[in-house]
Amino acid sequence: MTLKFEISKIIKNIIIRFTSFISLFFFIILFTLYYTICFINVYPHLMNEWIKSSFILFVIVQILSILICLFVSIIRFISFRCKSEKLYKISLYLS
What we know:
- By secondary structure, this protein is mainly α.
- Helix content is 92%, strand content 0%.
- The longest helix is centred in the N-terminal third of the chain and has 41 residues, at 2-42.
């Protein structure tokens, strides 16, 4: 009986945390959207540059994340080949 009570207590806690997270996330998204719309209204000629720079930044971040994953995978592969525990720990630290 106490186990069911503890599980229900944990589930209620998770639901409260999830709801607060979603609410906070929604508030941040609305604030960011409002700020962006105001910025575009004040500086209408910068909209195209803003979109281009956002796209370029997005691509650069994606490429960097792929390169980091590739680098960690290579280090891990080398650690398995050479049976080096130090290299493996380095790869765990990097990932």
